[in-house]
Amino acid sequence: xxxxxxxxxxxxxxxxxxxxxxxxxxxxxxxxxxxxxxxxxxxxxxxxxxxxxxxxxxxxxxxxxxxxxxxxxxxxxxxxxxxxxxxxxxxxxxxxxxxxxxxxxxxxxxxxxxxxxxxxxxxxxxxxxxxxxxxxxxxxxxxxxxxxxxxxxxxxxxxxxxxxxxxxxxxxxxxxxxxxxxxxxxxxxxxxxxxxxxxxxxx
Length: 203
Fold this sequence. Notes:
By secondary structure, the chain is α/β, with parallel strands linked by helices. Helices cover 37% and strands 20% of the residues. It is built from nine helices and eight strands. The chain has helices at 19-31, 56-67, 78-81, 88-98, 111-114, 123-129, 142-148, 168-176, 187-195, and strands at 5-12, 36-41, 44-45, 73-75, 85-86, 103-110, 131-136, 156-160. The strands form two sheets. The protein has a six-stranded parallel β-sheet, with helices on both faces. A two-stranded parallel ribbon has the order 3-5. α4 (88-98) packs parallel to α6. The mean pLDDT is 87.
């Protein structure tokens, strides 16, 4: 009997990737007995067309740097190399085709992003392609989430993670305002941001 690979898929803009992302991935790895978590930086995130996003190559390299020390983490260029807008349904389909043998996909996302799932391209197929793990933090409005999100769906699970009040948008603001971000992001990511002068302008 062939072993089914339990593959976590952590999609995100990762602009930049921070310790909150890493804690979420590690918790999913443990709670759902995953064999691996693959981080998938978005190429052209269509749902964030209202703000400037750093070039995909910068976001990809920061994710590689941040995850390099964990043998259970990997990074995929699927969305970075794909032309046009980024859709989860296409990524999940392609990851399944890439992996030889039997694979069970677990899409790891924040609870807020999960609330937007019905706005995604082909939401029913997305739910067929993978089991969804919606990450929440202590203090999160879980009642609202359960009311608005399809948590009754058999392929949706809620996962509590340790409280880490870190966000990519706040990190970008801190860099822009000259405030420290050390210990909010992996040291290699901090160095990369400084080397390439990311987030210094209005973006």
